[in-house]
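User: structure tokens for this one?
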Amino acid sequence: MKVLGKKTAPYRYLMPTLILMTIFMVIPICMVIGYSFMDKAVVSKNPAFVGLDNYKELLSNSDYWSSVSNTIIFVVVSVVAHLLLGMLFAMLLNSKYFSIRTKTIARVIYILPWVFTASVVAILWKLMLQPSGIVNYILSIFPGVSRNTEWLSNRSIALAVICFINIWCGYPFYMISILAGLQGISGDLYESAAIDGATDSKRFIYITIPQLMPILISIAMLDFIWTLQSFNVIWMLTGGGPVNSTQTLSVYIYKLTFQKVNYSMAATTATVLLLVCVIIAIFYVKQQKKVRK
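Assistant:
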């Protein structure tokens, strides 16, 4: 009995967490997947099983494909910009050309966007981007620039503005992660390369990038999943408008659920989004296993 108790002890410690995860995550996910195969799910006492009809209807819906297009642009632009900005600021903070005091002040300033909650970010930028806001006031100083630009109401630029705000919010995560990776690279590698006559660009390409690659891949995959599910800032800034120009899949699911009360199609869209996230998560787990080895 004592041997059996020792073998089952880890599972007993994990049991409360597993029970909570099952109740609040596994069961709801299974319910949503089940709703995607039904017609009039939740709103009807006896929803009819329709098989893959909801998926066929979804794939023929123009609003869905518009949301997919906006989501792809939003995710790709955000992840790439996060990576580039994070690398740039991390390299600056890791540079030997600045004093420790300057680096400390810069770290505090650079990390501020990541500290703000989504509601604070949305309110802050909504006020600044109003026609009478500070952004238009600063731009009006330059000749030929209008002071009455509707940044969030202009269909042609609204998505770009949302991307910019999301980039501003998310780059500190990359900066901190990459900075930690840079500080973990042995200085002997750079000294040996310098003795061999390697330029700064070659040292960056052949030493820095390969050493950081596991970190870059991991944070890019995580950021891809987070950005794919991004909802709060977009909803509070534009609500998916104007004319669905900033409507991503997360906003599309929300509208189907709470505005159109179409739980079946919302569950179908959520299931497709879940599948994409699971595929990315599998790659992330495999990457983490390689790093540990």
